[in-house]
């Protein structure tokens, strides 16, 4: 490959080009080897892209770091064709990422994440209730530990043919992160500092015309001989009287003598001056990174430290993260090279906000059940001098006991959580070159971390006081050896290697929780429970032994054929698995040598990969129940294991076409793929007389078919100005072909109250099941004798999977000034909203105000069962109640969106201004999720309907507002 000059143009999002040649030379001919780059592929092996027979896309680290990203996985959203990322705004929350659809019903559907060759554990500890929207804290994924400031590039291996060398764990593709390293002969010192601000953006629109209660008049009470209007303090709904400044009443905070300015003082029945929005803070994130890269002869070392401090939109919530990394490589002799990379990450979180329908979910209290007359400046005085709570939701005017809801400021100050994670990951290895063709590599990869989580419910809360503690330890070590042989034989080239891998995984966790409440307020210890605390623990140990190999043969840089194979022996399964792949590519631009064709290639690939199951899946083990009257309880589990269980098998076929034209000014990359997943691992119902309700078996088949496309255009490029446009598009069609015998569906989970998430035969994965409208022959909605919409039988209301995703990135550069922005688009998919259901039921949402004329009631648009037009009048609270107990389709929404995902404006200060002591200063301003359009429900962000990165998606249980972020970075190079 010719040495590229300073005229190189980096096309960061092209799946068929890593580096585009912009050399100034006399000849107009651009050769393939000038424009085809080198990318990191499976097992960290660098390959020329022209030789690859599968789809692999590269994203440069600048795309991630320049936009002020704190999560290296969510940063891929909209940037990669065929990759769907769901990144809710919850502080440090989970990021769901899938490639080419869903292939398993209950197994893993996320890709493997690899950092510098280390397969990184990306566990999500959110429990099942949290994930289905039933309440809990989102502690995020372990991939949050990846430091965006250290990333050099990301390679996305989208399918089986690309990731087959990783065997069973990469059946869903792989994301390969390569971190920065020192360059031989160079010294590089950089300091990067940035600040970002986060403000609430998309949130439910609340009505502002009626106050709390169920009656259209205020009740009265005689206190100290005087009669006052009071409110329905015990009611957590807002069907009360219309606001009237002449109507005086005693608010919830008028009954505490120690607050003398408010004691028994009536106030007007009006909308609050400080409403829900005033509760939220402007979140602030500070990021500082210092890196030093130095070359000492044949030794290169890079040291990096990054400190990240995040304060969330919910007061008291915060995360602190410290990343240390060392990247070292040294040439020990003419033939021997050593390298080592070590990362240490320490993450401390405090009071990550609860999400979903839970006791400590402020979103549930703000948007689903509450009173719209509450002034948040008064709620801030949430505690009396004796430590007891002051809440608006009093049991009665003379009983301050919280009935349903705590004061939100009590929630965020007293019912808190804390979490911490300490993690080491990295690798060390030796490479010995016998000659220029043959070398061997030996490496050890390690990933070890411990995580502690504690949560508190204070004495005096609406719920029973509690203290819970969880400790979790995870480790994985991979021991790998490879022998490589590469050579040219006339017109033929050979690239080959063979190796082995031994993987060792360990997991242990310990849970403890108090029972019956806490004895001493403010003392959070497992020994402070009213009854003996409960504890449970779990340990697992699994291993996989593997051998693998690859052979790639090239002919005249024109034809390439590659075959790989890997055999895995699992400690948790009886049978081993052999996973082959075959790929080929034809570089037709080396035959059609025309000036207008810069590069062209067709490719095809096939693979057969499986994914293993969980440890101990072959055996059935006794379960331990909570002690009863001091005696332990033992029982069979609900599901019987299967000693003959096999891995799920996924067969992939793909073809692709890449081309570049007009000196690389125009290009495209298109891939068509289809996958078949069979031997799905299912828990099917069996006769309870066996002692079990379900048994684990291999059955079922699921298919995915889709197309990915990438188009790159450079409309303008000259010495001072360039404009690059990249468009990516992905469309996937998923179908569950069959399950087991006549079994037609598998329930994945239930929403907190209504609707289910189901795998339904003949439909796309993740169908939302609930009741629909009933229509007559003319398409009119039918109402019953009460004037309510009639509900159909339980049926599919649509899948959570989108029709397609696409992204547009524009990058404009003028001298030292650059502008880049990304439009991210999703079309289709569905989600169920618990917030909409209860917000309408309780009269909280704007729509429930009926334009300020609730008194007129509602006649639902439809016809009676006899076909006549509906004329049955419903009062407003009754109408609102029908959003819960009749037609679920009222609360199912399209998940489409158009988002300005990120925009970055950067400027390199001129040398005349910064002098010679500093090599460069770059100032960049950025914004993320700045605008969103095309939302079916204007008050809910479709990406905010996820509370975990697993298979349970699309069930919105009570989400915080989504946020927009804006900030500035300054990079100093010394």
From TrEMBL:
Transmembrane segments: none annotated. It comes from Chryseobacterium tagetis. It is found in: Cell outer membrane. Its main location: membrane. Residues 52-174 form the TonB-dependent receptor plug domain. Keywords: Cell outer membrane, Membrane, Signal, Transmembrane, Transmembrane beta strand, Transport. Belongs to the TonB-dependent receptor family. PROSITE patterns: TONB_DEPENDENT_REC_3. It is a multi-pass membrane protein. This is SusC/RagA family TonB-linked outer membrane protein. Residues 1-20 form the signal peptide. InterPro entries: Beta-barrel_TonB_sf, Plug_dom, Plug_dom_sf, TonB-dep_OMP_SusC/RagA, TonB-dep_OMP_SusC/RagA_CS, TonB-dep_rcpt-like.
